[in-house]
Automatic annotation (TrEMBL):
<dbReference type="InterPro" id="IPR052059">
    <property type="entry name" value="CR_Ser/Thr_kinase"/>
</dbReference>
<keyword id="KW-0808">Transferase</keyword>
<keyword id="KW-0418">Kinase</keyword>
<dbReference type="InterPro" id="IPR011009">
    <property type="entry name" value="Kinase-like_dom_sf"/>
</dbReference>
<protein>
    <submittedName>
        <fullName>LRR receptor kinase SERK2</fullName>
    </submittedName>
</protein>
<keyword id="KW-0067">ATP-binding</keyword>
<keyword id="KW-0675">Receptor</keyword>
<dbReference type="GO" id="GO:0016301">
    <property type="term" value="F:kinase activity"/>
</dbReference>
<keyword id="KW-0547">Nucleotide-binding</keyword>
<dbReference type="GO" id="GO:0005524">
    <property type="term" value="F:ATP binding"/>
</dbReference>
Amino acid sequence: MNKVKKLEREKRLDVILDRNLNRNYDIQEVEMMIQVALLCTQPSPGDRPAMSEVVRMLEGEGLAERWEEWQHVEVSRRQEAERLQRRFDCREDSLYHHDAIELSGGR
C-alpha cells in the first residue's frame, strides 16, 4: 500500500494501471477509485468507511472531505514514523559509539 500511497501523492497512478487499457480511461475516475481503496484499507477497521459511505463516495458525495481528513492523518503518521526512525537511528549510533569506547579502554 505504501507504493500506491506514494504514487498517488506524486500523481503517477498511471504506473499501476493495466497497459492493455491503452490510456482508455478517465484519470479522475482512477484517482477517485484509488482514494476510496486507500480509505478502505486503513490499518484500523474503525477508521474504514462503511459500505454505504463507500457507495456515496463512488457516486461523488463526501469523498473530498473524507480524503482531505485522511491525508492530514496520513501526514501525521508519516512524520511520526520518520521521528521514530531518527530516534532509533540515533540510539543505534550511540550504542555503537558506546561499545567502541568500552572496547578501547584499558586492558
